[in-house]
Design brief:
Helices cover 18% and strands 30% of the residues.
Length: 830
């Protein structure tokens, strides 16, 4: 078995850890259709439909207009990735889903919604069959039974089981990943994948394993015994890869030429499907390796000493690597896939004497095809299917990052470093000579205490199109790219604001030129930010703006509610003079949560650059609280009936009509950012009252009636996304007024009623009168007597404290007499 050298392996890991591109975000534009499917078929576990769509298409609706696979795999259709023509090998599960669901094939292909509903209906039918069988109700076996029944992958012999297990593992692991549950809003299914897959789990989940003739061992020493389910025996060429040989009818034994190139392919389909397809003699194709998108797992299928059939008349001298995914879609080329493929490619280069510097890197690499011109030419030894003569395919296509792939395969060489404040720099040929072929050189200019470095070119001459100078704002080739330059198009003057600048030169295998001369200057003074101040936010927004002057590169702002900053939220504010807080502040150092201001709380802030800091003092956030005592009205979010609300809002709105028995509020519109902005409704005059419910997304509260004479709304929004908000109207039910014989008394009320502790009796006199008030219990006993011979006209109130009177719970009658006439009110003490 060939093994990658320890030095190269360490270099690959270091390169991968140094920096990596952000994995492409995979959004789900069809969530409403998935939600509808779950409503129609409630027995289906939430998350399984999204898992199938993600595994097969990354939520992309395949209409059939996509490029043909370079290995002849059958086309998949719809967002669920279903096969119409299995080419006498794959199951035609599109027709099967159509038959079970009643949706036509044409409807499924044309409509993402109907394709999801059709798959869900077919899945539900199979799920019910599983429940009627011996499988326990509601567990992982039912899910797997239905998934296998709807899979396109054949599984009649041992050689095909591994592909099927890989497909199932991809779907089930998607469902059990907490980040997917949060991102796509489905619950944890409670599956134990390790228990279900048993000893096979380590192989299915591990991106790197060592394989001997009888055992498979991962880096933790866990051993897998090869059994009937997995035809894995040994990977003679590349230790971290699994070995699952293609059918012998799909490749040629031996080679007619030495290996001198590596071909990068895209499957136009799934990892599992590709592995299975290479077992099909009717396919007539194969590649040496297949790489999984999610974690970079590699399966070898053809020995490098044999000739795979993957690039037409160029097969004799190439090793082919297929990558899961589609050329026209983002979301497939992950960091894990790049890193695994780069490590494999470096090992192939080392084994066959291929200079890894001959990896294609040119900026035009992912959009230029061989049939357009002669490029990329004979110098490129690691290149795409699209770059070989007499080819019609475009893989790996426009989304493949050749520059990143090149830098993973070729770790940064030891740079020449300059620390002087000024100086002159030349290419490797010096001030008068030419640079050389197959060169990769790096220079770093990092003057002490510099905040800015400027580089001015006095001459510039590189072989046009083939040799390039890359310039980065930082201390290595993983820093932000300022630009790349070729031919005689001089960079002129470029400036790095990080305090350091890196030059990387790459030349191809033929033709050199004079190179370049350049001078650099730097600004090494450190200017400490000053004039720190706070601009307060205005309710309902409780955020503030922090202000300062003289901020250069490398400054950060910290905010904490602890004056000692034992913990704080942090933000890079290089070259800024203000920032909205909380904004994008995140907790230091892990950035797992973002700063959310609490109302009426004192916060402290400072600005620093790692060695120098200055404090901005403290500020206190406002309490945004509003009260409305009208019996009816309307309320909108802060954006009004047609606008969006703002970020960083935190306010309460209490509706407490005078002498109301209850309040009813009805929502006519409701649209908040799901899970991040929320409206809480309380049954009472404050947020200490019982919570009726919390609402987010488009989950409207509908119509709500309080059990008291007040209702309180508490709205909170985060700093990032603002939706349309809500509109509502309210009305109240007044407290019952006593039936009165009194000509001179009006508006007799008891509030609250029912009550606990105390209640207030209010009434109005039209003229000065003698008033007598009695409180009588259910046994007719007089508890309280209040009398006033000549009470003045106007509004009057009397508080009755049952705790002070030491009264029991129950029903009481309050009698009010005036000028010989009387009226009463029932009181309910609880």
């Amino acid at each position: 078995m060939r093994k990658i050298t320890a030095l190269l392996f360490f270099a690959m890991i270091f390169s991968a850890l140094s920096s990596s591109p952000t994995d492409p975000a995979v959004t789900n534009p069809y969530q409403q259709h998935f939600d509808k499917a779950y409503q129609l078929y409630p027995h289906i576990k939430r998350g399984v439909l999204e898992a199938v769509a993600f595994a097969n298409t990354r939520f992309y609706h395949l209409s059939g207009n996509e490029e043909e696979s370079c290995i002849g795999m059958p086309k998949a259709y719809s967002v669920m990735g279903l096969i119409l023509d299995g080419k006498n090998y794959f199951a035609e599960n599109l027709k099967y889903v159509s038959t079970l669901s009643g949706y036509s094939v044409e409807e499924i292909i044309a409509s993402p919604e109907k394709s999801i509903l059709a798959y869900a209906k077919a899945y539900d039918i199979l799920l019910q069959a599983a429940k009627d069988s011996e499988t326990p109700n509601g567990n992982i076996h039912e899910t797997v039974w239905a998934l296998v029944a709807l899979s396109e992958l054949p599984h009649q012999d041992k050689a095909q089981y591994f592909a099927l297990y890989t497909q199932l593992y991809g779907i089930l692991s998607f469902m059990t990943a907490a980040e997917n549950q949060a991102r796509y809003n489905f619950p944890d299914p409670g599956f134990d994948l390790k228990a279900y897959f048993g000893t096979n789990y380590d192989i299915l989940s591990s991106p790197s394993v060592k394989i001997s003739s009888t055992d498979i061992e991962d880096k933790n020493g866990n051993t897998f015994k090869v059994g009937d389910g997995l035809p894995v025996t040994q990977s003679p060429d590349y230790g971290p890869a699994l070995w699952n040989p293609a059918a012998s009818c799909n490749y040629s034994v031996g080679r007619s030429a030495a290996v001198s190139a590596v071909t990068i392919h895209t499957v136009q389909g799934s990892y599992a499907g590709c592995i299975s397809w290479f077992q099909n003699c009717q396919a007539g194709v194969s590649a040496h390796y297949v790489v999984r998108s999610s974690d970079g797992q590699i399966t070898q299928m053809v020995l490098e000493s044999n000739t795979g059939w993957h690039v037409g008349n160029q097969n004799s001298y190439t090793v082919g690597i297929e990558h899961e995914g589609y050329v026209s879609q983002t979301g497939w080329y992950t960091t894990a896939m790049y890193q695994a493929s780069a490590a494999l490619t470096a090992d192939i280069c080392w084994s066959h004497g291929i200079d890894p510097l001959r990896t294609g890197f040119w900026p035009w690499m992912n959009t230029t095809y061989y049939n357009q011109s002669s490029i990329p030419g004979s110098c490129a030894k690691v290149k795409g299917h699209m770059h070989y003569p007499s080819q019609t395919h475009t893989d790996p296509g426009v989304n493949w990052d050749w520059d990143y792939f090149y830098k993973l395969i070729n770790t940064q060489p030891t740079p020449t470093t300059y620390t002087a404040a000024t100086g002159t720099i030349y290419d490797s040929g010096g001030p008068t000579g030419n640079y050389v072929d197959d060169e990769r050189s790096v220079w770093v200019i990092a003057p002490a205490n510099a905040t800015q470095v400027s580089l001015t070119f006095s001459s510039f001459n590189l072989e046009n199109t083939w040799d390039y100078l890359y310039i980065y704002d930082g201390t290595d080739v993983w820093a932000p790219l300022i630009g790349y330059y070729t031919g005689t198009g001089s960079p002129g003057t470029v400036t790095a604001n990080s305090g350091a600048i890196t030059l990387e030169f790459r030349s191809d295998c033929s033709s050199t030129d004079a190179g370049w001369n350049a001078n650099w200057t730097s600004n090494s003074s450190v200017v400490v930010p000053a004039n720190l101040s706070v601009t307060a936010g205005t309710c309902p927004v409780i955020g503030v703006t922090l202000n300062w002057t003289n901020s250069g590169n490398g400054w950060f702002v910290d905010v904490s509610d602890d004056p000692n900053f034992s913990y704080f939220w942090n933000k890079d504010v290089s070259n800024l003079t203000s920032t909205v807080c909380p904004g994008s502040f995140c907790d230091y150092p892990n950035c797992n949560t973002y700063l959310k201001f609490e109302p009426g709380t004192t916060y402290y802030w400072r600005i620093w650059n790692g060695s120098t800091q200055t404090y901005g003092g403290s500020f206190t956030t406002p309490v945004c609280a509003y009260t409305d005592n009208n019996c009816s009205g309307t309320i909108d979010d802060s954006g009004g009936p047609s606008g969006a609300y703002a970020g960083n809002e935190d306010w309460t709105y209490t509706i407490a009509p005078t002498n109301a028995a209850s309040v009813t509020i009805s929502f006519s519109a409701f649209d908040l950012e799901l899970n991040y902005d929320s409206l809480y409704i309380y049954d009472g005059a404050s947020t200490n009252a019982p919570l009726i419910g919390g609402y987010t997304g488009m989950n409207s509260p509908g119509s709500i009636t309080s059990g008291t004479g007040a209702i309180t709304l508490h709205f909170i929004s985060d700093p990032f996304v603002e939706n349309a908000g809500f509109s509502a109207a309210w009305s109240c039910t007044p407290l019952t007024t006593a039936v009165s014989e009194l000509d001179n008394v009006s508006g007799i009320h008891a509030y609250p009623n029912p009550f606990s502790g105390s209640t207030t009796i209010s009434y109005s006199l039209g003229s000065d009168s003698k008033v007598e008030i009695k409180l009588i219990d259910v046994l007719g006993r007089e508890i309280l007597l209040f009398a006033e011979a000549n009470q003045q006209s106007g509004e009057h109130s009397l508080e009755i404290d049952f705790n002070e009177l030491v009264l029991a719970k129950g029903i009481y009658t309050l009698w009010l007499s005036c000028n010989g006439k009387s009226s009463y009110v029932k009181l309910f003490a609880n």
